[in-house]
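USER: If only I could read backbone structure tokens as easily as an amino acid sequence. It would mean a lot if you studied the pair and described how this chain folds. Here is the record:
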Amino acid sequence: MKRPRYFCEFCGSEVRKDARVCPHCGRFFSSVKCPRCGYVGKADDFARGCPVCGYAEAANPPPEPIRPPVAKAAPVPWWAFVAVALVILGLSLALLRTLR
């Protein structure tokens, strides 16, 4: 018999059918969403799988969690390193002159 599995939409952790909060990430649940067709309903509606598409295979892997896209930082240009090195060198020379 197919046994539905429930996963947090945000972090992907498996949760109990009656869970209201994800024990892993702390997000609150207000409904259940089918990972295949997107149907949203109460947990009782999913007792035998998704009422729309039938998704409930125990062998199915958990859905991928929803993660916001990570913005990649632009690489630091080479001249920035040179500028920092020159500033450090200038400050060092100024300090040496004041100590003499």
